[in-house]
């Protein structure tokens, strides 16, 4: 049974054009070809990436956050309350009004106190600013290095300048050592993102990020199996060209696009932009966002569909009849392009707010007017309390069921 499934999975007609077999891609005369077994190494490399990431965030990103004066926002903790905690953990973090009234009777707290408790409890679960900064720093560092390395891999290749060269001699195209390592590192990194996605900062496009990471891993792996390596390196480098910007700005505080060979990570606002936003460098992150938005739209909505996808859809048919691998690869490209359109929509919405002066915290164009912040459409915004009790807490310490705990900071009267 297993042998039958194995044979069906690796049937040549699924992966290769007609009249070609796996025997045509066996190493010979010093020419090395991609093999499925090459990808086994990406799993241990992914765990190695997680270790390197931990060390980087601890010994590089955290001190950097201190140098950039990244400050944590003081959060009031929800007072211990078993009744409310049980509902929060097992039923809902956002109780309806009827639930609030019922919990008010069960816990002996006023309705307003129950609402305040849930706001504070939700804020406790939100990731800290330092955690966001460390994640953005790690992704920025990887994407920047990956982009530079990717360009070094392809800039001297003829198919970088003439896309018809991508298919010259396909699939009998030997693999270069630089292509091997570029693939192994990119695929390992995306495995590490998928492994850590449950513990990373979650945003509103969490499901889209999962789809993106899975689609990216499938595309990288499939392009390796089918020897679409030349096209794969072009696609990876194209996505890497904008991802590192995503981590240094937020939309003027933003998300994680993704990228990878098939895109990207995972969207709206540059990693560099996010880093500067967390550090409070508003003008810098706003201006980086402008650059990021331009690069993202040009690469993902112009170059990718009208050059790269045209190359993968049209040119192969000049050499071979369409086969399953051809349809599957281009279908996955369409899936990724759909995610690009979704993220571009978010970017354009934020850019519109940015240009028309509707950004939260300021007005106008960042080059001309005071600093502002364009709210990331994917961000999980922290809830605030402007009540008198909150102001009282800031002066006299934490609240317990809506009442300040005395700490001798109040004025004594005779």
Automatic annotation (TrEMBL):
The record, for Pfam families, names:
TRAM_LAG1_CLN8
Question: At which residues is the DNA-binding region annotated?
Answer: 69-129
* CDD domains per UniProt: homeodomain
Coiled coil spans: none
- TM stretches of this protein: 38-56, 140-160, 210-229, 288-308, 328-348
What ranges does the record give for the region Disordered, renumbered to this chain? 374-414
**InterPro entries noted in UniProt:** HD (IPR001356), Homeodomain-like_sf (IPR009057), Lag1/Lac1-like (IPR016439), TLC-dom (IPR006634)
Which UniProt keywords are present, listed alphabetically?
DNA-binding, Endoplasmic reticulum, Homeobox, Lipid biosynthesis, Lipid metabolism, Membrane, Nucleus, Transferase, Transmembrane, Transmembrane helix
* Protein name, per record: CERS2 synthase
Q: Which gene encodes it?
A: Cers2
């Amino acid at each position: 049974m297993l042998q039958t499934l194995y044979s069906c999975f690796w049937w040549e007609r699924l992966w290769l054009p007609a009249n070609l077999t796996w025997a045509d891609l066996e190493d010979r005369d010093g020419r090395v070809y991609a093999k499925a077994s090459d990808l086994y190494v990406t799993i241990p490399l992914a765990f190695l990436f997680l270790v390197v990431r931990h060390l980087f965030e601890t010994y590089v990103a955290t001190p950097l956050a201190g140098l950039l004066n990244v400050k944590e926002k003081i959060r009031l903790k929800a007072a211990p309350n078993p009744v409310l905690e049980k509902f929060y953990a097992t039923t809902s973090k956002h109780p309806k009004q009827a639930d609030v009234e019922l919990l008010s009777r069960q816990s002996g707290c006023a309705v307003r106190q129950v609402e305040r408790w849930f706001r504070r409890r939700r804020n406790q679960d939100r990731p800290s600013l330092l955690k966001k900064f460390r994640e953005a720093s790690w992704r920025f560092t990887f994407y920047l290095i990956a982009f530079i390395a990717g360009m070094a891999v392809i800039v001297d290749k003829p198919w970088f300048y003439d896309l018809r060269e991508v298919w010259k001699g396909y699939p009998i195209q030997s693999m270069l050592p630089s292509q091997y390592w570029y693939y192994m590192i990119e695929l390992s990194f995306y495995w590490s993102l998928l492994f850590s996605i449950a513990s990373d900062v979650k945003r509103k496009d969490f499901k889209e990020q999962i789809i993106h990471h899975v689609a990216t891993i499938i595309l990288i792996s499939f392009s390796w199996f089918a020897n679409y390596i030349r096209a794969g390196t072009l696609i990876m480098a194209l996505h890497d060209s904008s991802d590192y910007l995503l981590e240094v700005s937020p939309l003027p505080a933003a998300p994680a696009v993704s990228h990878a060979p098939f895109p990207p990570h995972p969207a709206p606002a540059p990693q560099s932009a996010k880093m500067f936003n967390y550090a409070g460098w508003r003008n810098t992150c706003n201006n980086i966002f402008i650059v990021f938005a331009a690069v993202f739209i040009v690469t993902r909505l112009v170059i990718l569909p009208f050059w790269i996808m045209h190359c993968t859809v049209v040119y192969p048919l000049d050499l071979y009849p369409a086969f399953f691998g051809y349809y599957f690869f281009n279908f996955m490209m369409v899936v990724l392009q759909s995610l690009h359109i979704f993220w571009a929509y978010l970017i354009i919405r934020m850019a519109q707010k940015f240009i028309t002066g509707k950004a939260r915290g300021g007005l106008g164009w960042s080059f001309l007017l005071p600093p502002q912040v364009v709210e990331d459409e994917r961000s999980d915004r922290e809830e605030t309390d402007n009540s008198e009790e909150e102001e009282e807490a800031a002066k006299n310490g934490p609240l317990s069921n809506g009442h300040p705990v005395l700490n001798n900071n109040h004025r004594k009267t005779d």
